[in-house]
Amino acid sequence: MAAGYAELLRTRHAARLLAGTLVGRLPNATAALAVVLFARAEGGSYALAGALSAVYGVCNAIGQPLLGRAVDLYGQPRVMLPASVLSALGMALLAAVGLDVLWLAYAAMVIAGFFTPPLEGGLRALWPGVLKRADRVHAAYALDAVAQEVMFAVGPLLVTLCVAAWSAGAALLVINAMGVLGALSVVVSPPSRQWRSGPREAHWLGALRSAGMLVLIGAFFFVGLALGSIAVAAVAYADEHGGGMVSSYLLSALGAGALAGGLVYGARDWPGHPENRLRLLIGLLALGYLPLVLVPGVAGMTALTGVAGVFLAPALACAFVVVDRHAPKGTVTEAFSWLVTTFGVGSAVGASVAGPAVEGGGAQAGFAVAGAGGLAALLVLLSTKRFLGEPGRPTAGATPAENDRNGAAEPGFRAGHQA
């Protein structure tokens, strides 16, 4: 398993692109925590901190698919780097003005959120041209999902260390400066500079004119909802079981499960159509969420959350392949960005729904929201099979480019091409 990933990372440019993308995404991964810590350090209430964070999240959700469409039209360097700089300047504006002029603080969040560069979708568009082989692309998607779990674990730690060493304002500046450097590392690389999206049919709906994409977006909204509710329910569970680090145990176990599942999933090539495999993985993911309502003791609950996380990274990796197959030509960065956005919006909705559920029924009710989200995601996929079927069969003896023109490219080879 390790040898396969090592071989992948030894491919020219692969390690640089993965590392640069992860560093470039740190500002987005840590924004919620960093903004709350800054607002509290400035004397703001939790309500104000939450409102600022929410503005960032909403503008991020709006900006990602729009910037993704711009990348498909104009290339990565011309969009990614300016967007990264503008987003960092938004956070710098917040650090400079504080909360004394509230409208400026909110404006800073609008700028920082809207111009967050779509590095995640951009990397997935680059993998086919860098790795050349479909089986390696599938492994790269899995490694990408695993690395994402690591980033979301390490990012908050970096913010906390910056706050402890300097200040909450310095943490905003340092993390966003790192983000610009990460984005710069990606866009000056040869694959990013040479990448061009496939020929695009002009249509105002862009990636959303694909029925398959709409199905994926609907399903992963509910997966995000499940995860967002687990975060809230974990805190409520900790309050009911002595507080302390209990919620960290649960969320760390969830991430560890996803890490292990993603590593195993990406270590081999799976037979059959990814659309069918995605339904199975989402079903297993939903099945893993249901036992959380049992809320046993801390040791048992930690084990259950670990199991609940196992199929998350595989489901994400498989979804990336399915996006690649169903995104209309010339829209792949936008399509990946829509999936990321929907996942994030679902997570925010899940947190907002789990809050009242916990107030009324404790941690058990919060975990029930997660189970319902998993089942809803599965129901979306099962009820729309005719829209998310096999998009086409590769023509025997044809090149990937020829199959692409026929609308039946091998998975992983429709993302774009090198100029």
What does this protein look like?
The chain has 419 residues and is an all-alpha fold. The protein folds into two domains: 1-197, Growth Hormone, Chain: A; 205-419, MFS general substrate transporter like domains (Growth Hormone, Chain: A, Up-down Bundle), CATH 1.20.1250. Helices cover 76% and strands 1% of the residues. It has 17 helices and two strands. The protein has helices at 2-10, 14-24, 26-41, 46-74, 77-97, 102-114, 119-131, 134-165, 168-187, 190-194, 211-240, 246-265, 274-289, 298-309, 312-326, 332-383, 400-405; strands spanning 195-196, 417-418. Strands 1-2 form a two-stranded antiparallel ribbon. The model is unreliable at 393-415 (pLDDT under 50).
Give the name of the CATH architecture of the largest domain: Up-down Bundle
Strand count = 2
Separate helix tally: 17
Name the structural class. Answer: mainly alpha
Name the poorly predicted regions. Answer: 393-415
Return the string of H and E elements: HHHHHHHHHHEHHHHHHHE
Look up the CATH topology of the largest domain.
Answer: Growth Hormone, Chain: A
Strands, helices and their partners?
Elements: H1 2-10, H2 14-24, H3 26-41, H4 46-74, H5 77-97, H6 102-114, H7 119-131, H8 134-165, H9 168-187, H10 190-194, E1 195-196, H11 211-240, H12 246-265, H13 274-289, H14 298-309, H15 312-326, H16 332-383, H17 400-405, E2 417-418
Antiparallel strand pairs: 1-2
Membrane topology: Multi-pass membrane protein
Keywords: Membrane, Transmembrane, Transmembrane helix
Organism: Streptomyces bugieae
Short description:
With 419 residues, this protein is mainly alpha-helical. It has helices at residues 2-10, 14-24, 26-41, 46-74, 77-97, 102-114, 119-131, 134-165, 168-187, 190-194, 211-240, 246-265, 274-289, 298-309, 312-326, 332-383, 400-405; strands spanning 195-196, 417-418.
